[in-house]
Amino acid sequence: MAVDNEPRETFEDVDWDDIDETTRSFSRKTIVTIGVYVLFAVGLLYDYVLKPSRADTIEPLGISLQALDWLYILTLLTILVGVVVPLYENGRMTRYYWQQFRKNRAAVASLLYLGVIFLIGSIGPRFLEQPTVDSSNAYQPPVFTSAPNWLPVECAGEVAGGSCHGTWAHPFGTTHEGKDILVSVIYGMEVSMQVGLIAALITITIAAIVGVSAAYFGGWIDAALMRYVDIQITFPTFFLYLMIVYLYGGSLFSMIVIFGLLGWGGIARIVRSEALQRREEEYVLAAKNAGASGYWTMRRHLLPNVSNSVITAVTLLIPGLILFEASLAFLGLGDPTVPSWGEVIASGRNDLPNAWWVSTIPGIFLFFTILAFNFVGDALRDALDPRAEGGDQ
Prior knowledge:
The protein is an all-alpha fold. It has helices at 16-24, 28-50, 67-89, 91-101, 105-127, 181-217, 219-234, 237-248, 252-262, 265-279, 282-289, 294-330, 341-347, 357-384; strands at 146-148, 159-160, 163-165.
């Protein structure tokens, strides 16, 4: 048998400086993440600095991106990097969470529904023009339905028995202005996803930073941050938005930014409460005693262990944001340049006795979207929080 005569490395021979340098080096994931955001920054720079003023952002497709579109892209990239990639990397935990989540059948169906809404809302407006006024097609009923031919307008479908029957030219019918409701609903899907996801991302980012920092540092930092949260929660954000509407007009971008920047107080309290409990855990104390910096401890230990509560809180926040945007659009305080479910519902409120579909169809989509987010939020709470008792649905 051959004898290994090579000297063995002992504990004293380990080059700890070399190990520290290796630890500090960027991982492949970090490099890819930085590259993705650099590409985003390059695209943004091209669109606002290098591109001719009247040219489209993506000229071959005729797509012109606005500030809200760029913010939406940034949100989707952040969700991809911060949620999708970690779920893929931690396959065992993802499978466990999915087993718990799928016990709630209503939540699984809701997740599929939201996926369809997201895909249609993200792709459809890129290839469909906004609904235009066409008085010759006013009050056309949805396909497979009919309405009394009681208005002095031409029926685009078949007229039988004194009733106008719907046609596939307008599957969901039209409004009193002749706007196609299907196209309006598709644009409303995009608006709802933008409002819910962008405002939620802004909210969760600020709430996580404030809540974890307050819990970790404590003392006067905790007191100052929580007193600010108390003041912000009582601040009349709605009246601030009304003032912006009065001065500059309704804007979906300003609404998302205002409610995102000023709506994180409640979630910050939840994060702080969870982080205060985790701060006294052995792994956090061990990291402190080993000389870990506060930033490293918060990023690697506190934040990941409060993420479950944050995710469930955000999934329950999103439907409130969507409903609030629809309410503002219904009252005429939304963005007049962007079709919204609330705007379409408002346009048909005076025609319910004769043209029920104008308000009912977008109202159904709004109702099921909010309900789906609530189902998903409840199921995520049961799946991610081991203290919750989830039952089979």
